[in-house]
Amino acid sequence: MKILIANPGSTSYKCKLYDMQDMRILFQANVERIGEEESLYSYKFFSQREINKKGHIADYFAAVNGTIKTLKKEFAIDEISAVGFKTIHAKDITGCVELGIDVIDAMKSYLPLAPVHTQVYLNAITVFQKILPATPLIGLFETTFHTEIPAEAFLYGIPYEYYEKYGIRKYGFHGASHRYITQRARELYFKDQPSYKLISCHLGGSSSVCAIKDGKSVDTSMGMSPQCGLLNANRVGDLDPFALLYLMEMENMSIDQVRKILISKSGVLGISGSSGDFRDILKNMQRGDKRAELAFRTFVYNVKRYIGEYLAILNGADCIVFTAGSGQNSPQLREAVLADMDKLGIKIDKIKNYANPKEGIISADSSLVKVAVIPTNEELVVAQEVQRYLA
What we know:
Nucleotidyltransferase, domain 5; 6-stranded mixed sheet; alpha/beta
């Protein structure tokens, strides 16, 4: 069985073709700067060198169609059993499901909760319906991993009838990433341990923390939308709702105006005033940029706060894992998050941490809690779940 995993972005598109028998990646492609005069296109077949090209790729249809044409040089389209997507959110729907009309309508119903993410996936699904009309399109919703969170963790303090009528509750996201971290951490460190407790820190342009017990999510920082929880690159994170109401009144803002601020001008970008990318933030801090330093400290504080909450909820942890772009690649960020936590049994080894392992332990030998870096693999989780769905 071969499954193509599509990973759409607002101006980018990535895909991987998996051989599900041995989980080999048979083909992968990456298109960047879609719509610009000089778009970037790279692709690679299994065991062959990567090919890089530049040229105008007008729109999303051209990007996907181009990768499919390249793929057809080695594989017939009817060899692809399904196209899998890491879909975000849909009203009354979670799990791994075929993306039929009812599911797409449910995604549109919750579009205001994740407008940027969901619209990108809706666009991609439409393109694949045109290009591969006979191939099943399957979505694994990011909320799936968090479906067993208990009611006391997912309920908000509003009249219960609004939860019943509109489904207003915490759902949680980054489910494929947190699930992969759970699987990989157990494989590496807890294979013979029947019970284990993890705190997974997915830190990047989009960030969340998840408390995991015996392979199941018991709480996570994101809420009904991906805008809640930690600061993200340009999304708000936790915010007092009355502060928002006050701002709307003072600035005479419409819902659309405030939505744009919350999803595109807030978070790390909003505090720093310069960037939401931690690579830029760290460079700006070295130049003495106080706002960049404040954004960094605020983000670190919030990650530390959620780790503290989940240590209390789990009654300790066996391992804290850092993953995603900044979590995997920024020793400065990891060091700052775990500073002054020795009384909780958490001690980082500075040499191991700054060696910046692709995968491995960075805690001190005397640390009661393991600290690890594990690169996430969301596409693999989606491929596995799509295979189970088709079985």
